[in-house]
UniProtKB/TrEMBL annotation:
It comes from Grus japonensis. This is Cytosolic 5'-nucleotidase 1A-like. It holds the Pfam family 5-nucleotidase.
Length: 315
């Protein structure tokens, strides 16, 4: 598939090798707060939206939900290059937008204003812009549009739906929290739970304890993140990863741990919540992003100011 016609290379940023880098694509509404502009687009149409963006092209957009996450991955790049200036295994950020190039000037100016290390801006007029994700080697796609996320997941790209919220910028150390079932792992146990209840799910896990779980939609991203994390000692790593799952440690934790071990995926900390709310522990961790397939968990995270991304299992 050819690249979008309107791809703007950011010459202020050293371009990465997409075959080696961990490429993350974000939409404009994921990285910036464009809710007022989006409302204008829905109510007044594309032409009025474009006029507004052109008139305000030198006015930086406020940060959005994924903004601090992108800043944190830049920090990781900085630390990696300090250790090895020739390293190619870096984060590479591109913006994928349904804006026209004319209205996209404000997006580019906003990124430059904040010093964001975004290598490319892709302005795509096609209704389904996710068709270009694989041609760019994207390993994670963050969008504020559910259809986009579902299309990306169906194309085999790790993706999650970002909800706009005010977030407090955590430390520069990149902190990423994953849920387990239907996010890192497949949803096989969730299906047993829905059909046979908790007792059936616990029994299933005991029988299957020695069998690694299938991969979930974010496994590929997590594995590449884990590979980057291994470049550092645990004490010096600029990346910290967490598993926060509704599983109980006593009855259903062993298989999760054995699966991670089989994959070779090291997680810094794991919390088996046994169905308890995740909000309090997330408030303590203060991650840059939290991935979960349960909307109630996303809401709990938002309530404590944690930037969250929903991985829908029902596209």
């Amino acid at each position: 598939m050819a690249e979008p016609e309107s791809t703007v290379i950011n010459t202020d940023v050293k371009q990465k090798d997409p075959s080696k880098a961990l490429v993350i694509a974000v939409t404009t509404r994921a990285i910036f707060d464009l809710e007022e502009e989006h409302k204008l687009y829905l109510e007044k149409g594309k032409e009025e939206y474009t006029r507004h963006q052109q008139a305000n092209q030198d006015k930086p957009l406020p940060p959005g939900t994924a903004f601090a996450f992108i800043q944190a991955v830049q920090y990781v790049n900085k630390k990696i290059l300090e250790s090895n200036p020739a390293e190619k295994d870096l984060f590479d950020i591109l913006v994928l937008s349904n804006n026209s190039p004319e209205s996209g000037v404000r997006i580019i100016n906003s990124a430059k204003h904040y010093g964001l290390e975004i290598s490319k801006f892709c302005f795509v007029s096609d209704e389904d812009s996710t068709q270009y994700l694989k041609s760019h080697g994207v390993k994670l796609f963050l969008s504020a549009d559910r259809t986009d996320v579902c299309n990306a997941l169906q194309r085999g790209v790790s993706a999650a739906l970002v909800f706009q919220q005010e977030v407090q910028a955590p430390s520069t150390l990149l902190r990423v929290v994953f849920d387990g079932d239907a996010v890192l792992f497949s949803d096989e146990t969730d299906q047993v739970f829905r059909e046979q209840g908790l007792e059936g799910a616990v029994q299933y896990e005991r029988v299957m304890e020695a069998v690694p779980m299938g991969e979930g939609p974010l496994k590929a991203f997590a594995m590449h993140l884990g590979k980057m994390r291994k470049k550092f000692s645990q004490e010096e790593s600029p990346i910290r990863t967490y598993l926060v799952t509704a599983r109980s440690g006593r009855d259903m934790g062993i298989r999760a741990i054995k699966t991670l071990r089989e994959w070779g995926l090291a997680i810094d900390e794991a919390f088996f919540m046994d169905g308890a709310p995740k909000g309090p522990i997330l408030a303590q961790i203060q991650p840059h992003i939290f991935f979960d397939d349960g909307l109630h968990n996303i809401q709990g995270a938002q309530n404590v100011g944690v930037p969250s991304a929903w991985v829908p299992s029902c596209c």
